[in-house]
Design goal:
Length: 98
């Protein structure tokens, strides 16, 4: 009986420990200038391929940050709007026609 009380106290103390909180990464406000230029070039290339035009004729009109992702808006010479999506590291995800 004397050894049962300390065992119960250890068991209860082990159960009441707070669970470890998940590690969260800080979100960067914007990618660096070199990375954003790379993102713009990649967006232009993908849009040029999709719309069958030269990359130099693609106009990038906007750059926005969302929760862990980026969007780059643009227009083709025929006034066709599109959006390029990137993840938080600046990797190209997809091109959407708007």
């Amino acid at each position: 009986m004397k050894s049962l009380v300390p065992m119960l106290l250890l068991l209860v103390a082990g159960c009441s420990a707070a669970p470890a909180t998940p590690v969260q990464r800080a979100q960067n406000a914007r990618p660096g200038p070199v990375r954003s230029l790379d993102m713009e070039q990649l967006c232009r290339q993908n849009a040029a391929y999709r719309y069958n035009t030269a990359a130099q004729k693609i106009s990038v009109t906007g750059f926005e940050q969302f929760r862990g992702s980026y969007e780059m808006r643009g227009v083709t010479p025929r006034s066709e709007a599109f959006v390029c999506a990137f993840d938080e590291e600046g990797q190209f995800l997809h091109l959407s026609m708007r």
